[in-house]
Each structure stands twice: as structure tokens, then as C-alpha cells.
Amino acid sequence: MGFIRELTKNRQLYALAIPGIVFLALFSYIPMVGHLIAFQRFQPVKGIWGSDWSGLANFEFFFGGQDWLRVTFNTVYLNALFLVFGIGAALLLAIFINEAGSVLLRKLSQSLIFLPYFISWLVVSLMMLAFMSSDGLLNDWLGRLGLEGVNWYQNAKLWPFILTVVYVWKFSGYYSIIFMAAIVGIPNDYYESARIDGATRLQQIVYITIPSIRSVIVVLTLLGVGRIFFGDFGMIYGIIGDNSILYPTTDVIDTYSFRALRQLGNFGMSSAVVVYQSIMGLATILLFNRLARRIDPDSKLF
């Protein structure tokens, strides 16, 4: 009865949510039936319901070697770098723009830092190729400085740093908009009181701005942690492609699963990798949500 009463009272709001619910059901929940392939010797001709069951054979094939350790570590490590430096850079950008005195400078800065978000990974990969190929701009600049050029696409150790820089360049402007919206909502009375007490601009940022948007920082961190086992396929494959020399530090779960499907045609093993990825992501978000609930109950997701 309580649910019906709530539904009747706020029927307009629930009606507005119907398109989102339908979208979520069609593209998030119904496709979960495909996880059954992980437990089958899947044959496209027979389909999901006609293929033979194989139990945990696909998982044994995946976990039988050392590749799963490498791709899992790369996925978590790269996403951790993206999360820490991405949110950190976005927070700094939001604070700097908010502290700018000129309204024109604020609007111009917002437009410039938000622009990279709309550039596709394919275009970014071409830009990086122009900069970082053996005869690219970076090596040309190094040569003018009397330094030896670097074969960027043959040095796997450099790529976690390179990908982090590219990620921050592309997404920090997007996340800074979220932080700026939160900063705008801080009552101006707090800053006026701090100025009367003699607080400097830096002290106002440290003791007013950052604590006031702590819940936003925690929520964005939780959302990032929830996808820490999901590599950005468009980014990694668009930039790295099939360059096996860079696999030791850049091969993530998503690209590994894609290669297993494309090169081996093994639907079952690829699906098993995705199931493993989903379970680990769910466990991670539950763990960190519990930690957030203990630290700041208002910042938890559920």
C-alpha cells in the first residue's frame, strides 16, 4: 500500500522517469542474459538456448595462464592513475576558474578546457601519432635541444604516464564543470565571515571550498571506483591498437577480451572474462560504498 500511495502521489515524477527506466532495461539488464555464454560452448548457429553447456571450462581456460594477472593489474593500475589525477586536476581547475576575477576569463577558460572532451579517441590517436612517432614533433623538438629522440611506441614503461596525461587532458575539463556547479552552491556568507576574520584566499579554499564539496568528491570517486575493473576500450585500443610491444603495461581486460573474440573466435572465453570483470567491479563498489558510509554517511551511493 505504501508503494501505491507513493506512486499515486508522485505520478508525474515517475512518468518522467519512464524513458530512463526503459533505456536501462533494454541496454543494461536484458543484455545480462548474454552472460550465459560464459558457461557454454557457444555456437552462433545454435544460439544461446541451443548451445552445449561447458560448466566452468571457459573460466579455467582464462585463469589457467598468467595473462589474467597482467590484464587485471594493468586495468586497476591505469584506472587508479586516471581516477586520482583526473579528479585532482579537475578540482584544481574548478578552484582556479572560480577564483578568477574576470567573468570573461572564466567563460573563456571553461570553453577551452571543456573542448577536448568532444574530440573522439580516433582523432586523439592521430594527434598522438603526429606528435610521438619516430619522426614526430616531440622528437623534432628534442633534436633541436640537442637531445636524442625517443621511440615512444616501443617503450612500454612510459605508457602508463602518457595515457594518464592524455586522460587528464581530455576529461579534467568535463569533471571540473561538476565541481564548479558544486562550488557555486556554497553560501557566500561563509567567505564573507572568513574574510572578516582575516582568512587568506588559500585558507578559504582549504577550509571552506574543499570541505563544502566533499560529498561531490566522494561520489565521483565512488563512481570511478565502481568502474576500476573496466578499462576504457575506446581509449586504449584507439591509441595502442594491436601494438603487442606495449601490451605489458597497456593491455586491459576489455582489450584482452576483444582480442580473444576477434582472433580466437572464442565467445565463451570472452564472455567469461566479462563476467569476471563485472563481479570484481560489483565487489569493489560495495566495499568502497561501505567505507564511504562510515566516513561520511551523506556521501554514500546507497
Proportion in β-strands? under 5%
Major beta sheet summary: 2 strands, antiparallel
Order of helices and strands: HHEHEHHHHHHHHHHHHH
User: Which segments are poorly predicted (pLDDT under 50) over 5 or more consecutive residues?
Assistant: none
Radius of gyration: 24 Å
Gap between N and C termini = 23 Å
Would you write up a description of this structure?
The protein is built from 16 helices and two strands. It starts with a helix and ends in a 7-residue tail after the last helix. 72% of the residues lie in helices and 1% in strands. α6 (103-114) packs across α9 (159-184) and α15 (253-264) runs antiparallel to α16 (267-295). A two-stranded antiparallel sheet has the order 1-2. The mean pLDDT is 85. By secondary structure, it is mainly α. It is globular.
